[in-house]
C-alpha cells in the first residue's frame, strides 16, 4: 500500500520496500517508519510529468552527413571494422548511399600485414525494389582490380521523419557524449530482438545511433557530424541495381569476395 503523509509544507509518498527493492531516501529525512521507503511527492510528480510529456523527436529524412561507424560481429574475419565516409539518405529517392573507407581488424594477434585491410567502397541501398537491394563496389589498391556485387540489404532501413514515433520509441534517459555534451536517448525494437537507440544533442540533431542484434552478436555504433538536411538529387543514386561490366563480382571463396562490411551481417 502506498501512503501519502504531510510534514509541514512537504508531502511524501511512502512505498513498501518490497516494491522498490531496497530502502532509499529522496527528500529531506526519512521518518521512523519500518518497512517503507520515502519518496518526495514533488519528485515523483516531476518524473511522471516529464515522462508523460516526452514525445519521440522527428528524424531527418533527406540529408547528407559525415559518418564514423564502428562494428563488431562474431564472424570477426573481414567484418569487425571502423568505417569513415559520407552518407546520403533520401526517402524521396527511396535510397541510401555510403561512400567511404573501411579498415578491417581481422585478428589482433595476426601480423600487421594481416590486420590492416583498408578499402574504398560505395554502397547503394535501393528500397524501391522488394526485397531491398545493395549495389556494392570496392577497390582496395590502385594496383589491383575493383569489383562490384549485388546483394540483399540487411540491418539498414529507410527512415521517414516520424520513424521513431511509428516504432513506438521510448525515452531511455540522457547520456553524456565526450565533445558533444548531454544527449537524449530514444530506443525502439525492430522485430523480436534487434534494438536501435538514437542520440539527439541539445539542438535536437541526431549525432549517433546504435544497433544491437543477437543473431550474429552484432553491435554497430554510427556517429554523425556535419549533418545537413538538403534535397538529394537522383543522380547521387545512379547505377543502383547494376554493376559495371569491367568490375565483376569475385567468385565465392575468392580473397576479395566479402560482404558490404558496414552492414550488420
Structure, described:
The structure is a single chain. The protein has 265 residues and is mostly beta strands. It has 4 helices and 15 strands. Strand 6 (81-90) and strand 7 (95-104) form a beta hairpin. The chain is globular. Mean pLDDT is 75; it is low at 1-41 and 252-265.
Tally of alpha and pi helices? 4
Output the helix-strand order.
EEHEEHEEEHEEEHEEEEE
Taking the sheet with the most strands, its summary is: 11 strands, antiparallel
Counted beta strands = 15
Mean pLDDT: 75
Query: In what order do the strands lie side by side in the largest sheet?
Result: 10-9-8-7-6-5-15-14-13-12-11
Strand content: 35-45%
Distance from N terminus to C terminus (CA atoms, Å) equals 49 Å
State the share of residues found in helices, binned by percent.
under 10%
Low-confidence stretches: 1-41, 252-265
- Helices and strands: which structural class? mainly beta
Overall 3D geometry?
globular
Rg result = 24 Å
Fold blueprint:
Elements: E1 3-7, E2 10-16, H1 17-20, E3 25-26, E4 36-40, H2 41-53, E5 62-72, E6 81-90, E7 95-104, H3 112-115, E8 117-126, E9 133-139, E10 147-152, H4 163-166, E11 170-177, E12 181-190, E13 194-200, E14 206-213, E15 218-229
Amino acid at each position: 500500500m502506498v501512503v501519502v503523509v504531510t510534514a509541514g509544507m512537504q508531502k511524501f509518498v511512502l512505498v513498501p520496500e518490497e516494491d522498490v527493492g531496497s530502502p532509499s531516501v529522496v527528500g529531506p529525512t526519512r521518518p521512523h517508519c519500518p518497512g517503507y521507503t520515502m519518496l518526495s511527492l514533488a519528485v515523483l510528480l516531476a518524473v511522471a510529468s516529464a515522462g508523460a510529456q516526452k514525445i519521440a523527436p522527428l528524424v531527418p529524412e533527406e540529408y547528407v552527413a559525415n559518418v564514423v561507424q564502428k562494428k563488431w560481429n562474431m564472424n570477426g574475419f573481414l567484418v569487425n571494422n571502423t568505417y569513415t565516409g559520407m552518407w546520403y539518405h533520401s526517402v524521396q529517392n527511396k535510397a541510401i548511399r555510403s561512400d567511404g573507407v573501411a579498415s578491417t581488424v581481422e585478428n589482433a594477434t595476426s601480423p600487421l600485414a594481416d590486420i590492416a585491410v583498408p578499402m574504398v567502397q560505395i554502397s547503394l541501398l535501393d528500397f524501391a525494389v522488394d526485397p531491398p537491394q545493395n549495389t556494392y563496389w570496392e577497390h582496395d589498391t590502385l594496383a589491383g582490380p575493383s569489383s562490384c556485387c549485388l546483394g540483399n540489404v540487411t540491418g539498414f532501413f529507410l527512415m521517414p521523419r516520424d520513424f521513431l514515433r511509428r516504432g513506438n520509441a521510448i525515452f531511455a534517459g540522457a547520456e553524456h557524449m565526450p565533445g558533444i555534451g548531454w544527449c537524449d536517448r530514444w530506443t525502439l525494437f525492430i522485430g523480436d530482438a534487434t534494438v536501435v537507440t538514437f542520440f539527439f544533442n541539445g539542438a535536437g540533431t541526431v549525432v549517433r545511433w546504435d544497433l544491437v542484434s543477437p543473431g550474429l552478436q552484432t553491435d554497430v555504433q554510427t556517429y554523425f557530424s556535419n549533418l545537413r538536411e538538403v534535397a538529394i538529387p537522383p543522380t547521387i543514386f545512379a547505377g543502383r541495381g547494376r554493376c559495371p561490366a569491367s568490375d565483376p563480382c569475385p567468385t565465392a571463396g575468392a580473397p576479395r569476395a566479402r560482404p558490404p562490411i558496414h552492414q550488420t551481417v
